[in-house]
Each structure stands twice: as C-alpha cells, then as structure tokens.
Amino acid sequence: MLIIGDFGLSWDQSRAQMAMWSIWSSPLYMSNDLRALRPQYKAILQNENVIAINQDKLAIMGKRNYKVMNFIFNLLIILSKFENKI
Description:
single chain
C-alpha cells in the first residue's frame, strides 16, 4: 500500500516509493483520499509513465541490475520520467 501524501512523507520519499512500486508489478492501493491530496502528490500517484511501467503486459517484476560496494541499486529509468512530468 502506498502512503504517498499521508504520514509526513517528503516529496522525494513519495517519488521513491512510487518508483519502487512501479517495478514490483503489484496492484496500486493507496491509503489516502485523492480529493484531499496536494497537487504535487496527486501528480506522483497519477503519473501515467510510471503506471505504464508497472502495467507491463508480461507482468514481469523488476530485478537487480547493479551491485556496487555492497549496496544494491535498481536501474530506475523511472526517475528521469518523473522529472519530465512533475
């Protein structure tokens, strides 16, 4: 369940949560009321590019692409798409 717009998440934390959701191939459950959300958080939740990544026709979940200095990084091209839409 996404808590974007609730519980004091910052804008950057909300973007990161949406990006992670998109690679998990999971349903979109939100814990908030879209009618009461601030516009910047609503834009994150309604970003069509990010939702399209999650709705991949093959329903294949994202996977690890790089491991650097014991930290695991997923290749998130999604973040660049956020910059174009928000």
